[in-house]
UniProtKB/TrEMBL annotation:
<feature type="domain" description="Potassium channel">
    <location>
        <begin position="74"/>
        <end position="132"/>
    </location>
</feature>
<keyword id="KW-0633">Potassium transport</keyword>
<dbReference type="GO" id="GO:0030322">
    <property type="term" value="P:stabilization of membrane potential"/>
</dbReference>
<keyword id="KW-0631">Potassium channel</keyword>
<feature type="transmembrane region" description="Helical">
    <location>
        <begin position="104"/>
        <end position="124"/>
    </location>
</feature>
<protein>
    <submittedName>
        <fullName>KCNKH protein</fullName>
    </submittedName>
</protein>
<dbReference type="InterPro" id="IPR003092">
    <property type="entry name" value="2pore_dom_K_chnl_TASK"/>
</dbReference>
<keyword id="KW-0406">Ion transport</keyword>
<keyword id="KW-0630">Potassium</keyword>
<keyword id="KW-1133">Transmembrane helix</keyword>
<dbReference type="GO" id="GO:0022841">
    <property type="term" value="F:potassium ion leak channel activity"/>
</dbReference>
<feature type="glycosylation site" description="N-linked (GlcNAc...) asparagine">
    <location>
        <position position="71"/>
    </location>
</feature>
<feature type="transmembrane region" description="Helical">
    <location>
        <begin position="222"/>
        <end position="244"/>
    </location>
</feature>
<dbReference type="InterPro" id="IPR013099">
    <property type="entry name" value="K_chnl_dom"/>
</dbReference>
<keyword id="KW-0407">Ion channel</keyword>
<feature type="signal peptide">
    <location>
        <begin position="1"/>
        <end position="19"/>
    </location>
</feature>
<keyword id="KW-0812">Transmembrane</keyword>
Length: 245
């Protein structure tokens, strides 16, 4: 029954996503094809194979973090700040996919780094989660002593921890992303959940817009937000698991 529910849930998700996303995909593909043929028709000096090679080169360069800005190219994804953020996304298993090592030595190092970094990250997240739980339990005991509440104190503190976590990790960060990245609130909220749940699609990643200037503290603060936000969301998911079981 559990397996049937699991497969049914996946099937339902696939059907809904297909209904929602397939029309937009077809429309985007038709628009891209139309622009491709209009470009070739308006610029007869261009040849189809040459244009295709240029497009593939631009796509590959963009995946490596290099973008064209007039007659120059922009770098910066592999500076120390960008490399530190990549390290965070690697050992937290978020794996956005927008950036990856391109050298053989870099890939080998990434494997070794993640092999030891992932367990280290899990141990740290577990400790942070336990500290959060101890803090909630301590506050609940204090309320019981002061107001002589029993079940009410525990329920009140758990609800407060949930609300505070929602504010700090899911509801308020999109406002920062709207200011620094130019995203809508919905896009920022979507990025927040996709990141903290370690799904990490990579369609939205902070600090990657070459047209924007980011403060030096930005990625460091986001790294701390990811660390504590993952610990909080892990507790929420664990609570949901207990309900399902």
């Amino acid at each position: 029954m559990l397996l049937a529910a699991y497969v049914g849930y996946l099937g339902l998700g696939a059907a809904v996503l297909q209904a929602l996303e397939r029309p937009a995909e077809v429309q985007t593909a038709q628009h891209l094809l139309r622009e491709h043929w209009e470009l070739l028709a308006n610029h007869t000096c261009l040849q189809g194979p040459a244009l295709q090679r240029l497009i593939e080169g631009i796509i590959q360069a963009y995946k490596s973090g290099i973008t064209l800005q007039g007659n120059t190219t922009s770098l910066g994804r592999w500076d120390y700040s960008g490399s530190f953020f990549f390290s965070i996304s690697a050992i937290t298993t978020i794996g956005y996919g927008n950036l990856s090592p391109s050298t053989a030595v870099g890939r080998i190092f990434c494997i070794v780094f993640a092999l030891f970094g992932i367990p280290l990250n899990l141990v740290l997240l577990n400790e942070i989660g336990q500290l959060m739980l101890l803090g909630v339990q301590h506050c609940a005991r204090r309320l019981e002593d002061v107001f002589h509440w029993q079940n009410k104190a525990s329920f009140l503190m758990k609800t407060s921890a949930l609300v505070i976590g929602l504010l700090l990790f899911l509801l308020l960060p999109p406002l920062l992303f709207s200011d620094k990245e130019g995203w809508s609130y919905e896009e920022g909220f979507y990025y927040s959940f996709i990141t903290l749940s370690t799904i990490g699609f990579g369609d939205y990643v902070i600090g990657m817009n070459p047209d924007r200037t980011y403060p030096s503290w930005y990625k460091n603060v986001i790294s701390l937000w990811i660390l504590f936000g993952m610990a909080w969301l892990a507790l929420v998911i664990k609570f949901c698991i207990n309900i399902l079981e």
